[in-house]
Specification:
Radius of gyration of chain A: 19 Å
Order of helices and strands of chain A: EHHHHEHEEEHEEEHH
Mean pLDDT of chain A: 88
Strand order of the largest sheet of chain A: 2-6-3-4-5-7
Strand content of chain B: 5-15%
Helix content of chain B: 40-55%
Helix content of chain A: 40-55%
Distance between the termini of chain B: 60 Å
Shape of chain A: globular
Number of strands of chain B: 11
Number of strands of chain A: 8
Largest sheet of chain B: 9 strands, mixed
Strand order of the largest sheet of chain B: 1-2-3-4-5-6-7-11-10
Distance between the termini of chain A: 39 Å
Oligomer: heterodimer
Structural class of chain B: alpha+beta
Structural class of chain A: alpha+beta
Largest sheet of chain A: 6 strands, antiparallel
């Protein structure tokens, strides 16, 4: 079923909240996933992969929690200026890391190069996502042994993906169900009292 | 990096903008009046400038008023169609609440001209609203309920060859009222990206405002059709004067309030435009004769409008009564002699400060009204395609300064006092209806929406105090990731000063109705009629030009601020 990108982003945001992430993270993660979707990739699956790790698991020297710390990492690198570089070991949800980086590159109008396991190269720019292998291959790995991130360079011989933009997107229905289930955790169960008082209107409000 | 916006040399003389500390308070926001900068006014001006013709291409409505209709117009170089479905429902099921399952009518703004297949498909889905599915060819989705009191009365009167009771028309003001107008990708309809570059629809809520104007037109046609069906040989059409006074009602509830919190840059832009317009008008050294005459005429309209503005809500009716008394003291300032004086506008504004907020904001809206040549162009600045963006390179020290500059109000609140945290905003699982709860008496506060800004600011300030002020925000957030949301908000307000409502939205004293009225004033809604502190009825497009007026060169299509029903 085709859905609008706004509808999808909104639901992904709620799913991130439902998975226990604070609202600031939920906003960024949903946009990161939406960025991937807008480029024709399975951002939903990438996000769910990242959410599985949870917010409470802090990153360490040999484990990086993309969903929790991905955006902050790009921010630190960006603040260091062009040429800044960082290497990570044991990166959870590398596909989501690409989405986070893409959203970051788009927002801050910068270019980033990610190198996964010393062999897969990803170039991210404003609305540009170039991969040296199919995205599905990256998505199939829950954890990546190493990721090197560099602010700015140009890559040749890569697979350029298109930005879909504007006509709605297709989401895997099983994954959508997972997303809706997580999102539902953000809704307060109804009660007779809340139904009567919560909206400030009686049940019958005709004129 | 997001830098604070600096005022470059203004194109027009202007006074200082009012401070956000003054303007962004709930009680002032809740006193706003519609102005000529509103979205509805912008829509009508554009329609008139383009001389847009409305064509009714489908009318499959039965004698009782049920069926479907299509209206098409060419606007900004694109064709759009309103598709209307009028449905028989059990009157006991009629409600304006989000939890409603059926409605008297459903609408779609369609991108282009629908085929029969489109109509058939939408006939299955539009009346189901949120339960239906839609395509990117659908730009806006809406629904409306009949005014039980007025619709039948008008139909019966017209059928009998008479015009309806003017007092009822004046009191109610609409045949139908919308209970939701959805855009921007909800339920599968088109993302805003599809239309945001189109002339006429690029401004905020322009697609929605166009839809509501078209719905109004449909309701007029519908009641005349039903009247004609009752007694074809006797029925008459609605008098144009009365027809113009019939707008579209709207029931506005809590769902609209969080919008102001979740779209800070957009809110800033709306407020900045309004305040800049005020600053330009306030700087006028000498009003010309045409403006003076216009103002004097509008003063009479204000007097008349206040007489016709009667609501059952005690709080609002007390405010209106006070306003009427104050208006008696304020209106003499708009005499010919007073308006001829140098700096008349700024003097009036200064004098009005002694009166209630309702009076102050009414006077502001009045003063803006004749000055379209000076301020209408500002409406192009009301949209925002910029998203809030964190500034990772900002130092912790600068962040602390930003809090001091823009969130001093939040630091002053005693968040240990239960009354400061009494309320919580949430989304109910029941049809995702937005609701407000009592934190100490109801379940669910752990799922609250992030409107407890003051609480978050204070928690942030506490952790910032432990951090090296020379370090970067990015480093702070790596250590304290839970503050990401509020840090972004604070940095946004630093660059966009009107982005934040500077009041406690979860405190005992917070009245959501103030937020609703603020947003509705930007829509252009009038006859604010609160039903509780959490929802209100308003009327849109009351007094607005009809479709036939839009193409009538002799009709002034931009003179319908504060509509009154003139005596016949």
């Amino acid at each position: 079923m085709r859905r609008s990108l706004n509808e999808v982003t909104s639901e992904l945001r709620k799913a991130s909240l439902g998975a226990g992430f604070p609202v600031g993270h939920a906003e960024d993660l949903s946009k990161a996933a939406a960025c991937l979707i807008d480029h024709g990739h399975d951002g939903t699956a990438a996000l769910l992969q990242g959410l599985e790790v949870g917010f409470e698991k802090a990153s360490s020297e040999d484990n990086f929690n993309t969903a929790r710390d991905g955006t902050a990492l790009f921010e630190i690198l960006y603040a260091g200026g062009a040429g800044s570089e960082r290497s990570l070991i044991g990166v959870y949800a590398p596909a989501l890391l690409i989405g986070v980086g893409l959203q970051f590159a788009k927002t801050y109008q910068c270019s980033l190069i990610l190198t996964l396991n010393n062999e897969i190269e990803v170039q991210l720019g404003q609305d540009q996502l170039l991969l040296s292998c199919p995205f599905e291959a990256i998505l199939s790995e829950q954890m990546c042994q190493s990721v090197n991130i560099q602010v700015s360079q140009v890559l040749a011989d890569a697979i350029e993906t298109k930005n879909i933009n504007g006509e709605g997107v297709l989401i895997n229905e099983n994954l959508w169900l997972e997303i809706k289930t997580l999102a539902a955790k953000t809704y307060v169960p109804a009660s007779e009292a809340s139904r009567l008082k919560g909206a400030g209107a009686s049940v019958n409000d005709n004129d | 990096m997001m830098e604070p916006i600096e005022h470059t040399a203004a194109l027009f003389p202007q006074t200082e903008l009012r401070s956000p500390d003054e303007v962004m308070k709930l009680d002032r926001l809740g006193s706003f009046y519609p102005t000529r900068l509103s979205f509805m006014r912008t829509t009508i001006r554009r329609l008139a400038n383009e001389n847009v013709k409305l064509r009714r291409s489908v009318w499959e409505i039965d004698k009782e008023g049920f069926g479907r209709a299509v209206y098409t117009l060419s606007y900004g170089g694109h064709l759009y169609s309103l598709i209307a479905f009028s449905t028989r429902i059990d009157p006991n099921m009629r409600t304006d609440r989000v939890i409603a399952e059926v409605w008297d009518s459903a609408y779609v703004l369609f991108d282009g001209v629908p085929t029969t297949e489109d109509l058939d498909r939408l006939e299955q889905n539009a009346p189901r609203q949120e339960a239906g599915r839609f395509l990117p060819s659908e730009l806006v989705l809406s629904r409306a309920n009949r005014s039980v009191r007025l619709f039948d009365h008008v139909a019966q009167s017209l059928a009998a060859g008479k015009q309806p009771d003017e007092k009822m028309i004046g009191e109610i003001g609409y045949l139908m009222r919308t209970t939701a107008v959805y855009g921007n990708g909800k339920f599968g309809i088109a993302d805003r990206a599809r239309i945001m570059a189109r002339p006429g629809l690029s401004g905020p809520f322009q697609a929605e405002m166009l839809t509501v104007w078209l719905i109004r037109n449909f309701t007029h046609d519908l009641v005349e059709h039903v009247a004609h069906s009752i007694l074809p040989d006797m029925a008459v059409k609605l008098d144009k004067r009365l027809k113009r006074h019939l707008g579209i009602g709207n029931s506005t509830g809590l769902g609209m309030a969080p919008f102001l919190v979740s779209h800070p840059i957009l809110l800033n832009n709306w407020m900045m435009v309004r305040e800049t317009a005020l600053a330009r008008v306030a700087a006028i050294a000498q009003l010309d004769a045409e403006k003076r005459v216009r103002l004097e005429r509008l003063v009479g309209r204000v007097t008349h409008h206040l007489k016709q503005w009667n609501v059952p809500d005690i709080r609002q009716s007390e405010r209106i009564e006070l306003l009427k008394k104050e208006w008696g003291q304020i209106s003499p300032q708009f005499s010919t002699d007073q308006l001829k004086k140098p700096n008349a506008v700024s003097q009036i504004l200064e004098a009005t400060k002694a009166f209630s907020l309702e009076a102050q904001e009414l006077v502001i809206a009045l003063l803006l009204e004749p000055h379209g040549d000076l301020i209408d162009g500002l409406t192009d600045c009301m949209a925002s395609d910029v998203e809030s963006r964190l500034d990772p390179a900002m130092s912790v020290g600068a962040l602390q300064q930003a809090i001091e500059n823009h969130y001093a109000w939040a630091l002053k609140i005693d968040c240990t006092d239960p009354s400061a945290r009494k309320q919580f905003w949430y989304v109910s699982e029941e049809k995702l209806e937005p609701r407000l709860g009592d934190r100490f008496e109801e379940e669910g506060a752990e799922l609250e929406l992030p409107h407890d800004i003051a609480v978050k600011v204070q928690a942030l300030e506490k952790d910032l105090a432990e951090f090296d002020t020379s370090k970067l925000t990015a480093e702070f957030l790596m250590r304290y990731p839970q503050h990401r949301y509020i840090v972004r908000r604070i940095q946004t307000t630093n660059a966009f000063p009107y982005a934040e409502i500077r009041d406690n939205l979860v405190g005992e004293k917070c009245l959501p109705i103030d937020m609703l009225r603020c947003k509705l004033s930007f829509f252009g809604a009038a006859k604010f009629d609160p039903k509780s502190s959490r929802w209100t009825r308003i009327t849109m497009y009351q007094g607005a030009p009809l479709a036939e007026d839009i193409t009538n060169a002799e009709q002034d299509c931009d003179d319908w601020w504060l509509p009154v029903l003139e005596e016949n």
